[in-house]
Design goal:
The chain is mainly alpha-helical. It has helices spanning about 10-20, 20-30, 35-50, 55-60, 65-70, 80-95, 105, 110-120, 125-140, 150, 170-185. The chain contains eleven helices and no strands. The longest helix has 18 residues, at about 80-95.
Length: about 200
């Protein structure tokens, strides 16, 4: 069953995210310091430029060669050099530890805690990004290991606070509204006070 994440406004780009675990993992990796739509459209741009989105083949490329692909106009991110290197690092981990398939990170995983641990071990996947990705898998991809809500923290609730809660333009607007209200209240995505 394909997933229900619809964020980019481009049917093909969203379809790729919902059918290809590597695309979804890369989209989440790119989701920082740029609009969500731009971040999650990145995997489709990469696939178009490379003719594939195969972690084994990306890992086998030279880092600078891959970064050059990421930096082609329009670039895949505001910081194509840094993010291109990070994508290459993630693909190298996928090639070395998960047979080149991001879906193997969550395939057969028994607990949310183990899923979180595997994600958090990836380059660029800090605490919040890992929790959000656990929520994305559960809420949009049908991957719900025992204890996933606890592993996702606040992102496992029903408040529209992150990309995990987006399945179309209406829910995207709700997430944006909620984030705006949080910013006005000087609170972050996890309801913590910010200065």
């Amino acid at each position: 069953m394909p997933g229900t994440l619809y964020i980019t406004g481009d049917k093909a780009a969203d379809g790729l995210l919902n059918e290809d675990g590597t695309a979804l993992l890369i989209g989440m990796l790119l989701d920082q310091q740029v609009p969500m739509e731009w971040a999650f459209a990145g995997p489709a741009k990469l696939k178009e430029r490379l003719g594939q989105l195969d972690a084994n083949r990306i890992a086998a490329m030279g880092v600078e060669e891959f970064v050059a692909v990421c930096a082609e106009k329009p670039s895949i991110h505001r910081f194509p050099g840094a993010m291109g290197k990070r994508i290459h690092q993630v693909c190298t981990v996928l090639a070395d530890e998960y047979e080149g398939q991001a879906a193997n990170i969550w395939k057969g995983v028994d607990t949310g805690a183990e899923l979180y641990r595997r994600l958090h071990a990836l380059p660029g996947y800090g605490e919040e990004k890992s929790k959000i990705f656990v929520a994305i898998l559960a809420k949009t991809q049908g991957v719900r290991p025992q204890g996933w809500r606890e592993a996702a923290g606040k992102f496992g609730d029903d408040i529209p606070r992150s990309v995990a809660d987006i399945d179309g333009p209406e829910s995207l607007a709700k997430v944006r509204e909620w984030k705006k209200a949080q910013k006005a209240a000087k609170r972050d995505k996890q309801d913590n006070a910010v200065r």
